[in-house]
Design a protein that fits this description.
The chain is built from 9 helices and 13 strands. The strands form 4 sheets. It has a 5-stranded antiparallel sheet with strand order 8-3-5-4-12, sandwiched between helices. A 3-stranded antiparallel sheet has the order 2-1-13, with no helix packed on it. A 3-stranded antiparallel sheet has the order 9-10-11. It has 3 domains: about 60 residues, no CATH class; about 210 residues, no CATH class; about 40 residues, no CATH class. The longest helix has 21 residues. The chain is globular and about 70 Å long. The protein is about 30% helix and about 20% strand. The two termini are about 40 Å apart. A hairpin with a 5-residue loop joins strand 1 and strand 2.
Length: about 375
């Protein structure tokens, strides 16, 4: 993974040479690594994903619910990412599904999109789920749309307590099946009795589950998701400076209740890389998942049914733009004159382009 990011958009991956059709400007563009942890590659991936999700939005209120693990339990996840993160997805989704289906609450079958983040602003390990939920669901017989109260989804304290119970039960099941590994000063937790005793205090504390105010509308949901779905632990925009010994980056100190929370943190290069690598997910592990009405298998059918029940028409699909480039032109215009950039050569990794781009002229 690190080697892919290091090689991203360098000659190591090959690329193409583009030339302006109006002036003499040329430049070389190197290929992307397309690794899902690469800060440079996630922008295009997010745009493509959001374009596919736009047709799934409903004209209803949407809510944002966040489920967070206690720091001590999160520490176990560092050694058991696939097991613990998978349990975090399942327990949070089952929590919302169960409470929403309770006739005393909403009495509806809801759907949700969940996104896993594993970092805090300072690149510390902080696993949590961002869940986007439409404000309502289908009735038990599936023939009616049941909307939640305006501006209110579900009680967070009720969600928190069920989430705590489901997660702890799931954690014990993982331990009994031998799916957890322990290291360092927690090696003793491999014994069932010791693990049960260690978990006991967590059954009594409040687990952090909170709901943010509802979004302003489906468009706001789309804008929000575009920032969250393909985010990586740190973006290039947050990097302040870097050299062989130190990396400095901007972070937000949430302990400050008022005033400027923005600060600059300086870490040794080794420590910065260590913190970044904590957030690499296991191969094949999906960090975006859909549940309930939005589960992939029945999503389109369910969304069409909901639209029919609430009298909403499908969103209009924009016709393909006549300005869409051909495979041999670039979307970005010439930086010198604004003309169309034409690909005149492609080259593979390790190759040197035959038509080397001339250096850009310096302004007088």
């Amino acid at each position: 993974m690190m080697s892919a990011i290091e090689a991203c958009r360098t000659e190591a991956l090959g690329g193409h040479v583009a030339a302006c059709t109006k002036c003499s400007h040329q430049h070389i563009a190197y290929n992307s690594c397309k690794n899902r942890h690469c800060p440079k590659c996630q922008g295009p991936a997010a745009r493509d994903w959001m374009a596919a999700r736009a047709e799934d939005l409903l004209p209803v209120e949407y809510f944002h619910v966040v489920f967070t693990l206690p720091a001590e339990i999160a520490r176990i996840a560092l050694w058991n990412k696939r097991a613990i993160y998978g349990l975090l997805f399942r327990a949070s989704a089952e929590t919302v599904t169960t409470i929403a289906a309770d006739p005393k609450r909403m009495g509806a079958r809801v759907g949700m999109t969940s996104v896993l983040h594993t970092w805090g602003s300072a690149l510390t390990h902080h696993p949590h789920i961002h869940m986007i939920v439409p404000g309502g669901g289908l009735s038990r017989d599936g023939n009616q749309w049941v909307a939640c109260k305006p501006g209110f989804f579900l009680h967070v304290r009720v969600l928190s307590r069920l989430f705590r119970r489901l997660f702890i039960e799931g954690l014990m099941a993982l331990h009994r099946s031998g799916d957890l590994a322990f290291y360092s000063d927690l090696k003793g937790l491999a014994e069932t009795g010791a693990f049960a005793n260690w978990l006991a205090p967590f059954r009594k504390i409040e687990w952090v589950v909170y709901a943010k105010p509802p979004f302003g509308g489906p468009e706001a949901v789309l804008a929000y998701l575009s920032r969250y779905t393909h985010r990586v632990a740190i973006s290039n925009q947050r990097l302040f400076s870097a050299d062989a010994n130190t990396v400095a980056f901007r972070w937000k100190d949430y302990r400050i209740k008022s005033g400027d929370r923005q600060k600059v943190m300086r870490l040794t290069t080794d420590e910065f890389i260590r913190r970044f690598l904590m957030h690499v997910l296991p191969d094949g592990f999906h960090r975006i998942r859909h549940y309930g009405l939005l589960a992939s298998a029945q999503r389109k059918t369910n969304i069409a049914k909901v639209r029919a029940l609430i009298g909403a028409s499908p969103p209009e699909q924009e016709p393909p733009s006549e300005d869409d480039p051909t495979p041999f032109t670039l979307r970005e215009p010439c930086p010198c004159c604004g003309g169309t950039m034409l690909i005149i050569e492609t080259f593979k990794r390790g190759q040197v382009p035959r038509s080397r781009a001339p250096p850009r002229k310096q302004a007088a």
